[in-house]
Design brief:
12 helices, disordered N terminus
Length: 451
């Protein structure tokens, strides 16, 4: 028992000898270097997770989900146009419908092959595949009849109440993960950065104190290894913090400046195609005023979701565009103008949409006054001042605005991933440099006591 109790005493005595004190400093430097390197690597891993989630996992799937929704909305519009014009099975609208449905199926297959979040994505994809089969069966039945009837009404209800919401659920499945990762990102990244700074200061102080100990007891003005190690460590920490800041800035820009606009615009386009289909269906229900009233209410709800802000009597937007936040999807985009050329493109998008909605009001007025043929002509017309022309102008401007933000998002997210990837090598260097400095710097001094 007494031997066990007194066994540590030789170790304690050794620590109070000159070589023991030097070895103690070696151990402290090694321990601090290890903790610093692990903390720095943990910071890299965290930023890498956020950058990968935003850049490679969630955002492409969110955009793909909205593209599926848009494609289905476009297909449904062209199908309605085919019945409105009575063009038959081989007309241009039916060919456009067939092509869009094929594209939607291809996109769904791609989405099924790129599932990241398990059942959260798998379930809406499976629902879309199952529901589209039923939708196409109803469309086939409607085509056999040759006119707008019960089968087409059922297909429209299925598209509007189950298929498009399933596509939105696919968007939401990915958006929830992106939102969670980003909400965690800001505060946690700063805490990890402060931990690295604190540990780096402790390690630097340990190296400096060791240098001072050598000077005070052994009159060594400079220990080259310790001095070089300290200077290199300071440079490594500076590089790490600089990269950390650059990565955080790129992630923030990718999410807030670019993706928030991409999401608002892709959602606006998918809802706009839904509204476009509602406009045609309104005319197909010309013998059922109650149904027309419901379709008008649905169109107005879609238009309100896209834009319900205000402009001046001259059609000018407010000087401070940030006040448009929450005024519809286009309002959210206008409140988030960041990149060169974006303001002009977004303004053209809004003007195109407002023009389209104004023409829609003329269509409904003509229809309510009994001018059905004129209303149909205005609805499917592609000349300047007609509905499909106005919708095309809106869609082209939206595509230009979307391209600006998508390009910025791709650049920012790739920049973040590239910068973050380099941080892991700095974390390794933060371990090796102090270890080598402590070992080589004190090895010769310790060896002197053995001689």
């Amino acid at each position: 028992m007494s031997q066990t109790m007194t066994a540590p005493l030789p170790m304690r005595r050794a620590l109070h000898t000159a070589p023991g004190l030097l070895r103690l400093r070696q151990g402290i430097i090694a321990l601090l270097a290890l903790v610093l390197a692990l903390t720095a690597y943990n910071g890299y891993a965290f930023l890498n997770h956020v950058a990968q989630t935003i850049g490679h996992d969630a955002v492409p799937s969110i955009v793909a989900a909205e593209e599926i929704r848009t494609t289905l909305g476009y297909a449904h519009t062209e199908l309605a146009n085919a019945f409105l014009t009575n063009e038959g099975k081989n007309g241009p609208a039916m060919r456009a419908y067939t092509s869009a449905m094929q594209q939607a199926h291809d996109s769904l297959l791609t989405a099924a092959q790129n599932i990241t979040y398990g059942d959260e994505e798998r379930k809406p994809i499976l629902a879309l595949m199952t529901l589209l089969a039923e939708y196409e069966r109803l469309v086939g039945a409607a085509s056999m009849v040759g006119h707008y009837g019960d089968a087409m009404v059922q297909a429209d209800v299925l598209m509007r109440t189950r298929i498009l919401p399933a596509a939105s659920a696919l968007d939401q499945a990915n958006f929830s993960h992106l939102d969670a990762a980003y909400r965690q990102f800001g505060a946690e990244a700063r805490v990890r950065q402060l931990l690295v700074i604190g540990l780096a200061l402790l390690l630097s102080l340990a190296l400096i104190e060791t240098q001072w100990h050598l000077y005070r007891h052994y009159r060594r003005v400079f220990n080259p290894s310790l001095l070089a190690g300290t200077l290199v460590l300071v440079a490594l920490i500076g590089s790490y913090l600089n990269m950390n800041g650059a990565a955080m800035s790129s992630i923030r820009s990718a999410k807030e400046d670019a993706f928030d606009s991409v999401h608002a615009l892709t959602r606006a386009r998918s809802v706009a195609y839904d509204a476009n289909a509602l406009e045609t269906l309104y005319l197909l229900e010309n013998l059922h005023p109650d149904n027309q009233t419901k379709l008008t209410a649905q169109f107005n709800a879609a238009a309100h979701a896209i834009w319900h802000g205000s402009v001046s009597a001259e059609g000018n937007l407010p000087a401070d565009l940030s006040v448009l936040k929450g005024e519809g999807m286009l309002g959210d985009e206008l409140a988030n103008i960041t990149f060169e050329g974006e303001a002009a493109a977004a303004t053209r998008t809004l003007n195109g949409w407002r023009n389209y909605v104004a023409i829609d009001a003329r269509i409904r007025k003509l229809e309510s006054e009994g001018h059905h043929a004129e209303a149909v002509a205005l609805c499917i017309g592609t000349r300047e001042g007609e509905s499909d022309w106005a919708f095309g102008q809106f869609n082209d401007a939206l595509s230009d605005t979307l391209k600006i933000n998508q390009t910025a998002f791709d650049q920012d997210s790739e920049r973040a991933i590239t910068v973050v990837d380099r941080m892991r090598y700095l974390a390794l260097a933060m371990l090796l440099v102090p270890l080598l400095a402590g070992f080589w710097g004190l090895r010769r001094r310790i060896a002197e006591f053995r001689a």
